[in-house]
Write a structure and sequence with these properties.
Number of strands: 4
Strand content: 5-15%
Helix content: 40-55%
Largest sheet: 2 strands, parallel
């Protein structure tokens, strides 16, 4: 008999109440966003106060600018994440239902879109305050895995973005008819807990590597290096996990009902993998640029 793990008794809502005929709820996903932003903000504050971590002992921004940056990052994450989901994953649907684009509470956010939103924030904020863009990007990328970790854990609690069917002993039986639709292969459909794979790789492991590079290896003295490692690390982790992650419904063809191989083109890449390849390429370029920038200092 196949070993499988039943989904724990978790609710996506911490609590809910009705006021004046309207229902309000506090969800774990919202708490994940808030926790990631607040903890990341405090880590950035602590990092810019450590002058020895920076080239010429000169942090790129001060405490007040870090506080201002938090608001900008929130806008970048929300607007970029939502627009990325609309454009990358369901453009046809939202073209027919444009009013729903702003309905963020219904769900639908893209990490790659949120990343582009934060990139835009990086350049706008740096230009406005006269800050080195690459150093600003480094400090934001250094703490990004904190938010990713909490976000992926919230995905698991919400029983969403689960993986493909598996007979491995740690397969999880997620609730809901969609999660149990395994083309009649199994009575109970166990799936990869791909949210936890991503939390471990993109969040915990990548975050530990970036903090180690920043605090132990002097990586913040090479503008662009931490950003490059983040882009490569996330891109590789996401590319690998996509092999276990269920394809989005709109990308599953009639001859691919279980969300396995081919989604785009002859090489069979998923949307997540396609969007991760430019991240890896840009990351390699940033590392090369950072190392070349530091080359004269090592002679």
């Amino acid at each position: 008999m196949q070993a499988m793990i039943p989904f724990p008794d978790l609710s996506p809502e911490i609590f809910s109440f009705t006021l004046f005929g309207m229902e309000f709820a506090l969800r774990w996903y919202a708490i994940a966003y808030i926790a990631g932003l607040v903890i990341g903000w405090r880590v950035v504050v602590a990092t810019v106060r450590r002058q020895s971590l920076w080239s010429d002992d000169s942090p790129p921004l001060n405490d007040k600018q870090v506080d201002d940056l938090l608001f900008w990052v929130i806008l970048g994450v929300i607007l970029g994440g939502r627009l990325g989901f609309v454009l990358f994953y369901q453009p046809a649907y939202y073209l027919q239902n444009p009013a729903e684009i702003l309905m963020v509470w219904q769900g639908g956010m893209s990490f790659h879109g949120g990343l582009l939103g934060v990139v835009a924030v990086n350049f706008l904020f740096a230009a406005r305050h006269g800050i080195r863009p690459l150093s600003l990007a480094d400090v934001m990328c250094m703490v990004a895995p904190i938010g990713i970790l909490f976000g992926r854990l919230a995905n698991f609690v919400n029983a969403e973005l689960w993986g493909r069917p598996t007979d491995l002993p740690w397969g999880v039986v997620f609730p809901g008819a969609a999660a149990q639709d395994c083309a009649g292969v199994l009575t109970l459909c166990a799936r990869h807990p791909s949210q936890l794979y991503e939390a471990l790789l993109e969040g915990l492991l990548l975050g530990a590597v970036l903090l180690w590079l920043a605090y132990r290896r002097g990586a913040l003295r090479m503008p662009g290096f931490v950003s490059g490692v983040f882009l490569i690390g996330y891109g590789l982790a996401r590319f690998i996990v996509e092999f276990a992650r269920q394809a989005d419904a709109q990308f599953i063809s009639a001859d691919n009902p279980m969300g396995h191989a081919v989604e785009f083109g002859p090489v069979g890449l998923s949307m997540g993998q396609l969007l991760s390849l430019p991240m890896i390429a840009v990351g390699l370029g940033l590392i090369a640029l950072a190392r070349r920038h530091q080359a004269p200092n090592r002679s």
